[in-house]
Write a structure and sequence with these properties.
By secondary structure, the chain is of the alpha+beta class. It has 1 helix and 3 strands, in the order E-H-E-E. The protein has a 3-stranded mixed sheet, with helices on one face. It is elongated.
């Protein structure tokens, strides 16, 4: 979420200056809001390389497995009434 100053341009201004506006967003990280008849219809935002994708194995160096990750987390008799028969 961007919390800085947001630039507003009309759809017509965007049409005529699209490449310039894209470069401005890329360099500054500013958000540009595009309006049509005074109402917001879209935003230009910078994508910081990774986008919103989750890549398999992304956290492989950040996680350490300790103990059994497949077996039960406790003895079923500790569950009392909830224990399965």
């Amino acid at each position: 979420m961007y919390h800085g100053h947001m630039i507003r341009v009309t759809a017509t201004e965007h049409k005529h200056q699209a490449l310039k506006l894209l470069e401005q967003v890329r360099i500054s990280g500013e958000v540009i809001q595009i309006t049509k008849r005074g109402r917001p219809i879209a935003q230009l935002i910078r994508i910081d390389g990774s986008g919103n994708r989750v890549t398999f194995g992304k956290f492989r160096d950040d996680v350490q497995i300790v103990g059994d990750i497949v077996g039960p987390i406790g003895d079923p008799s500790d569950w009392g009434e909830l224990a399965c028969s």
